[in-house]
Amino acid sequence: IRCWSNIPFITMPLSRAHGKSFAHRSELKHAKRIVVKLGSAVVTRGDECGLALGRLASIVEQVSMLQNQGREMMIVTSGAVAFGKQRLRHEILLSQSVRQALHSGQSQLKDMAIPVLEARACAAAGQSGLMALYEAMFTQYSICAAQILVTNLDFHDEQKRRNLNGTLHELLRMNIVPIINTNDAVVPPPEPNSDLQGVNVISVKDNDSLAARLAVEMKTDLLIVLSDVEGLFDSPPGSDDAKLIDIFYPGDQQSVTFGTKSRVGMGGMEAKVKAALWALQGGTSVVIANGTHPKISGHVITDIVEGKKVGTFFSEVKPAGPTVEQQGEMARAGGRTLAALQPEQRAEIIYRLADLLTDQREEILLANKKDLEEAENKGRLALPLLKRLSLSTSKLNSLAIGLRQIAASSQDSVGRVIRRTRIAKDLDLEQVTVPIGVLLVIFESRPDCLPQVSALAIASGNGLLLKGGKEAGHSNQILHHLTQEALSIHGVKDAVQLVNTREEVEDLCRLDKLIDLIIPRGSSQLVRNIQKAAKGIPVMGHSEGICHVYVDMDASVEKVTRIIRDSKCEYPAACNALETLLIHRDLLRTPLFDQIIDMLRVEQVKIHAGPKFASYLTFSPSEVKSLRTEYGDLECCIEVVDGVQEAVEHIHKYGSSHTDVIITENEKTAEFFLQHVDSACVFWNASTRFSDGYRFGLGAEVGISTSRIHARGPVGIEGLLTTKWLLRGDNHVVSDFSEHGSMKYLHESLPLPQRNTN
Asked: What is the SS3 assignment for 626?
């Protein structure tokens, strides 16, 4: 027997075998039977008199949504005392105003005092109104609710416990939502308490214990405890060093300092943790979260059930490695140490990684073979993604060459002075390059991305979190191991972290205190999802690679088919592959046009006709569904334009500002195209496939940015740096530069230090 709050708990409840709680948040979506416990601070208004109707309506909406999905929902609620207090205060004021108006006149109404209200009377007056409110709200969703009032004594009597269990099961069978509350109208008087001003509060600590007891008794899959704090912190919330605990494990109580309880009720966080751990032991998963925050309360329950990172999740399964929050802190500390190394030391790490890619080639390819076999057996990946997943000896050799280029070009990246100004005599200002901080790079089906991005992060002194796709798990593991082996030569192994936990991408995008920049590398849908999910963290990348090639009327016959073939067929899954071919109208029905079509047919490229192109043909290919399509395969759209001006307009309307090409021998036309197309990369007589960090001589790239920020196009080392200002003075103060001060501003530009060009 365990006793909390004067309620005895039998460790193994009747008719329940010891269940198994969910090990990970991602499994919560499978929860069938759910108890939602609403604390007093959630249900009660800020003035502690009456109910927070808007918040309550939102909770009912979420519970109804889950109930209508086929789940079995139960609510353990507080609020009767607060609701009753509101009603009784109204009655007392009305009664006093009538009496005083008769005997003393209106002048004394303002001096009326509200007597201290007895909590049981408040509960008696509030219970019926609270239930009526729940019934009215649930009726809006065609759901029936039923009230069950219990007391501490009900759990001492085995027959009453059986009856309660049977009643709840019958209600759930009939698709009714049970609403359970302690019967505060008949419980013994509590100790005097000033939580609710003017009310001796019935201890709602019982509702924490009650919710845990019912959850285990009813073999519930999930208990959601809503309070007025985000969850469990490692120190009292509001203190400077307080950090929200994402996952709490049994035995972690010693590492937690409990603060004061909520503004109403007696159910402090310590009581909630005890109740949660007891429920966890009984096989019920538990999440403690904030039900009062206006930005999240409207979807907090559904977010928890969907497995999103909300509040504190209680789990019995402790992961072998660090949490993603710990990895973020390790990357931050490791990145700062990395930035403090000498440029030659950072270059040495990258050279070592390049050597490891070739020395450990067999092990890398073996791991990659496992990924390919698993992907093919499961049939989850389309052919373009399988191609991206595949590694080869030539790919590894190219990677090693690119990494050596990065090492050679990184000598003068961090700490480079880009501006010097003499503000005044003996007051000099410098602007120097510094790392951005911690980067989160999310990539799909591209294990070769891992060493490339790692090398760029190392060269620029940034900490790095990597989140790869599950389909490349074996490849990513060995490549990350080799990266850490290279980092170890200068003791900065922690600077690059591979996130292996079951963190959802959306949850990673909320870690704004740990991550400074997110770089997605993958499908357009992935990039859009990340841009939508990122809260307060800038995202650098492109959502689509809709690249155009415009064949001008003055194009060279010898160049056209070579450039188009390379742009479309060399690697059709790449983001810099040709997707739309624009043809000058005068080239239709010419030998050059026939050569283009014949070449595409030989290469088995499926052609989609744009609206204008289709209008010229009697029997046309399938008309394109959208001119804004990234095929990522041996498919492309052909459209007709009247000239370079219309080509530019088409690109601006349907393109993605990635890479666009003109093929022409007319220099004036080419320059017009180069100057007027507003894309990250604009080429003349060259394949779209040159839009690549390695081919640009950057060694590699973290991605191609189409944003209007400092880094655009293929992003190498320079794009991963920001700046800071260094001011060196000698007892300078601003007041010396006032109208009657002794000093004058000079603002002289000073020469920059000579760069290392080796």
From this structure: coil
Q: How far apart are alpha carbons 457 and 459 in whole angstroms?
A: 5
Look up residue 433 and give its two tokens: 């390059």
- The band of 10, judged by pLDDT with boundaries at 50, 70 and 90, is very low
For residue 661, what is the DSSP state? Answer: E
What does pTM read for this prediction? Answer: 0.77
CA distance 257 to 515: 27
SS3 per residue for 476-529: HHHHHHHHHHHHHHHCCHHHEEECCCCCCHHHHCCCCCCCCEEEEECCHHHHHH
- β-pairing verdict for 33-38 and 222-227: parallel
Q: How far apart are the first and last CA of the chain?
A: 76
682, 675 contact by CB (below 8 A): no
Distance CA 608, CA 594 (A): 16
Which residue, 622, 623, 674, is CA-closest to 647?
Answer: 674
Q: Pairing mode, if any, of strands 2-4 and 7-9? A: antiparallel
Q: Are 520 and 442 in contact (CB under 8 A)?
A: yes
Cα-based distances in Å from 337 to 143, 340, 439, 457, 490: 59, 5, 15, 13, 10
For 228-255, b where at least 16 C-beta lie within 10 A, e where not — what string? bbbbbbeeebeeeeeebbbbbbeebeee
- Cα 232 to chain centroid, rounded: 20
Query: What's the token pair of residue 45?
Result: 């208004």
230 pLDDT tier (thresholds 50, 70, 90): confident
Question: DSSP code of 429?
Answer: E
CA distance 389 to 445: 5
Which residue in this structure is represented by tokens 């209106």? 106
**675 pLDDT exceeds 90?**
yes
Q: Quick check: 461 and 402 in contact, CB under 8 A?
A: no
Q: Quick check: 597 and 613 in contact, CB under 8 A?
A: no
Q: Could you tell me if 566 and 685 are in contact, meaning their C-beta atoms sit under 8 angstroms apart?
A: no
User: Per-residue pLDDT tens for 364-376?
Assistant: 999 999 999 998 8
Q: Where are the beta strands (DSSP E) in 269-378?
A: 285-290, 312-314
Domains of the chain: residue spans and CATH: 25-93+117-187+202-314 (3.40.1160.10), 324-418+428-533 (3.40.605.10), 548-701 (3.40.309.10)
Name which of 420, 330, 401, 714 is nearest 545 in CA terms: 714
Phi (first) and psi of residue 682, to 5 degrees: -130, 120
In angstroms and rounded to an integer, the radius of gyration of the C-alpha atoms of the chain is: 34
Phi-psi region of 251 (alpha: psi -120 to 50; beta: other; left: phi over 0): left
Supply 649's token pair: 């307009």
CA–CA gap between residue 416 and residue 722 (Å, rounded): 11
- Where does residue 748 rank: exposed (0-12), middle (13-18), buried (19+ CB within 10 A)? exposed
Question: String of b and e for 485-506 (b: at least 16 CB within 10 Å)?
Answer: ebbeebebbbbbbbbbbebbbb
42 and 79 Cβ atoms separated by less than 8 Å: no
What residues pair up with 722 in beta bridges, in sequence order?
434
How far apart, in whole angstroms, are the C-alpha atoms of residue 527 and residue 180?
44
- What is the SS3 assignment for 748? strand
Contact 688, 577 (CB under 8 A): yes
Region at 747 (left for phi over 0; alpha for psi -120 to 50; beta for the rest): left
Amino acid at 178: P
The arithmetic mean of pLDDT across residues 739-747, rounded, is 91
Over the range 516-533, which residues count as b (16 or more CB within 10 Å of their CB) and which as e?
bbbbbbbbbebbebbbeb
